[in-house]
Amino acid sequence: MNKTVYFNDALPMVADILDAQAFPGNIRPLVIRDMQGRIRICLENGRKPTHQELAVLLEEKISTLGNFSENTGNAVLFPEDFFDPDSVFAHPDILDFYFPGTERKLRLLDRQIVGQDWLRPESQLENGIPRVVFFGLKGGVGRSTALTMLAYKLAQEGKRILLLDFDLESPGLSSLLLPPERLADFGIVDWFVEDAVGQGDAVLERMIAASSLSEQTQGEIRVAAAMGLDEEFYLAKLSRVYAKTVREGQAEHFSARMKRLLEALERQEQPDVVLIDSRAGLHDLAAASIVSLATDVLLFGTGSAQTWQGYRLLFSHWQTYPSVLKKIRERLKIVEALFPELNQAERAEHFLENSYSLFSETLYEQIEPETEESLEVFNFDMNDESAPHYPLRIKWNNRFQEFDPLMLARGVMDEKDIEVSYGEFVSGMQQRLTGGI
Questions:
Q1: What are the two backbone dihedrals, phi and then psi, of residue 393, each rounded to the nearest 5 degrees?
Q2: Burial of 212 per CB tally in 10 Å (0-12, 13-18, 19+)
Q3: What is the pLDDT of residue 410?
């Protein structure tokens, strides 16, 4: 009886097959994994009449993958099997997949229903505007309130701040910054729906509202909320946001559409800083925000096991694609949210140790013993405050759990309250935005 092959087994078995096989000439094997996880091997630069014997041999070996093999007799393909070979062999999603902890790799085109945006990093700072993404694995850690506090303090410095609520499934940023009657006519979901039919530009000027919080500052806080004024059809629009679209004859990924929207709003609003409230969890919205939009990514967490387990899942995914990881890791900074009032020294040390373990085991490069430490190695000491793993802290304060900007205007809260809870966080972010930590 054949042994059952599971999803986790398939890629290592394919690597064994490829490592044991000598490929003639300039043939380059490309592994394609379909949406069910089934495997095919495509022989770039190979020719079917010339290399048929090789194809038969590989077909036989791939059959050992069981239900994760392509069992239709087409497990090995050549360029002539495709109508447009370049659409396969020059696909932008082809990446070198590395097996964790080894130098072993294979070329992989991974067809996924969702999740591909975690692996599509784009160049940043094209216009010099810092874009800070606020991300957490779950809600309820004070992410949106922290964003609001940072916007307020930056506006006090005279800066023009643009805020975007990309937490479309659970919009909440606008409720912190805008009374319902001050919402703009349109929201971010409206742009996606209208843009799909060619009229996104028509709503741009009518999807920005000024926050009353900036009335007490020298600067401005401008908000692009998830929804618009008097919204009645939000769920109907939301269900269409992720639909595939075509632009100039080419399919356009959701992340590319988000980037295009952000760039259009930046041209329109001319902000000094952009702050983005991301969708919580390992969702495509979060992926696009972090990988395609951000210059800085704030990873909110608490000292719970859930924090470390969740971030380890994400970091381990990036770890298998070093070319992607190297473009993302310098953007990251962990935030210790809801820092407790009791046992602070002990809890701070415990959080730092867990954070350092997470980053050093997944994102940091290892320094070989008995060699000089290279400036090119991405590695940090545990107590290096400039390191991604070293947390910015936000102290828990019950008064901020139901924060309303009017509380500042009415004197219910004052600058001292903000300083006690958010002083370290705001100071750290001001340094990051001016080229510090």
A1: -115, 140
A2: middle
A3: 64
Inter-residue contact 223 to 188 (CB < 8 Å): no
How far is it, in rounded angstroms, from Cα 398 to Cα 224?
A: 28
Give CA–CA dist 283/238, Å, rounded: 15
Q: Are 277 and 147 in contact (CB under 8 A)?
A: yes
Q: What is the pLDDT of residues 406-422, one digit of tens each?
A: 666 666 677 888 888 89
Look at residue 216 in the predicted model and tell me its pLDDT: 81
Query: By the 8 A CB rule, do 167 and 258 touch?
Result: no
pLDDT digits (tens, 9 = 90+) for 107-130: 999 987 777 787 888 755 566 899
What H or E segment, with its residue span, contains residue 341? none
User: Percentage of residues in the chain with pLDDT exceeding 90?
Assistant: 59
Predicted pLDDT at 286: 84
State the DSSP string of 244-280: -EEETTEEE-HHHHHHHHHHHHHHHH--SEEEEEPPS
Domains and CATH numbers, the chain: 7-113 (no CATH), 122-433 (3.40.50.300)
The mean-pLDDT minimum among 55-59, 124-128, 192-196, 365-369 falls in: 124-128
Residues 71, 63: contact at Cβ < 8 Å? yes
SS3 of residue 336 by DSSP: strand
Question: In DSSP terms, which residues pair with 250 in a beta bridge?
Answer: 247
- Report d(CA 339, CA 425) in Å as an integer: 11
Listed residue (389, 400, 375, 395) closest to 437, CA to CA = 389
Residues of 53-88 as b/e, b for ≥16 C-beta within 10 angstroms? ebbeebbebbeebeebbbeeeebbbbbeeeeeeeeb
Window from 55-69, 72-86, 109-123 with minimum mean pLDDT: 109-123
CA–chain centroid gap for 231, Å, is: 28
Residue 105 structure tokens: 């790799």
Backbone φ and ψ of 413, nearest 5°: -120, 155
CB atoms within 10 A of CB 371: 8
pLDDT tens by residue, 178-224: 888 889 999 999 999 999 999 999 999 999 999 988 888 899 999 99
Please report, for residues 4, 107, 181, 220, 310, the alpha-carbon distance to residue 99 in angstroms, rounded to integers and kept in the order given.
21, 12, 53, 48, 20
In b/e form, how buried is each residue of 267-285, taking b as 16+ CB within 10 angstroms?
A: eebebbbbbbbbbbeebbb
Residue 264 phi/psi, 5° resolution? Answer: -65, -40
Whole-angstrom Cα Rg for the chain: 25
The confidence score (pLDDT) of residue 221 equals 95
